[in-house]
C-alpha cells in the first residue's frame, strides 16, 4: 500500500477534525497524480470508498 493512502485516509475518516474537503483536493494534497489514483488507493487500504468512509464518520457517535 502506498503510504500516502493511509495518511490521506485520515482526512476522510475524521471529517469532523477538518473542514470538508472533496476527494480531489485530498488527492492532490497528499501527492496523488489524480483523483482516480487516490480513490483506488483509498479503497485498497480501507475497503470502502472515501464517500462511504465520510458517511460512516458522520453516523458515528461523537
UniProtKB/TrEMBL annotation:
Keyword terms, alphabetized: Transcription, Transcription regulation
SUPFAM superfamilies assigned: Homeodomain-like
Cited InterPro entries: Homeodomain-like_sf (IPR009057), HTH_AraC (IPR018060)
PROSITE patterns, per the entry: HTH_ARAC_FAMILY_2
Leader sequence segment: none
Occurrences of domain HTH araC/xylS-type (ranges): 24-56
Name the UniProt record assigns to this protein: Helix-turn-helix domain-containing protein
Organism: Marinobacterium aestuariivivens
Lineage of origin: Bacteria, Pseudomonadati, Pseudomonadota, Gammaproteobacteria, Oceanospirillales
Amino acid at each position: 500500500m502506498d503510504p500516502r493512502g493511509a495518511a490521506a485516509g485520515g482526512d476522510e475518516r475524521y471529517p469532523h477534525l477538518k473542514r470538508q474537503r472533496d476527494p480531489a483536493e485530498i488527492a492532490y494534497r497528499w501527492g496523488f497524480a489524480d483523483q482516480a489514483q487516490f480513490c483506488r488507493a483509498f479503497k485498497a487500504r480501507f475497503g470502502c470508498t472515501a464517500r462511504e468512509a465520510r458517511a460512516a464518520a458522520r453516523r458515528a457517535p461523537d
